[in-house]
Design a protein that fits this description.
Length: 127
Amino acid sequence: MSALVVDDSMLIRHTVCRFLEDRGFSVESASNGEEALEYVNRRIPSIIITDMQMPRMTGSQLITALKTKSETSGIPVIILAGKSSGFDNDEKRAAFAIFKDIDIETQLAKALDAVLGDHAMKKTASC
């Protein structure tokens, strides 16, 4: 499975990418929604994990762009937001939402299980 991690924080991208790679995902990352769309135009990931507040194109704008195209409208999106960001927990276009400032790895495990099922949670040996 492949994943795209979109966040303007290098530390958050690194943390999420490592977590996914440890579980056998092929992972790419982008620092904003524009970069994410450029990647998605070349290769469609199995799942996208995105921050909501980013420069150049927000997570909400990214989700809107994804949902308007038939090729990308079915990609599950997990929102990654700061607890104090004012994020609207009622965002219905995402499959799951987690807060990046509260035990991110535990929340990611729950989100992946909810979105992709138990097979996404098995750790695999990396090459």
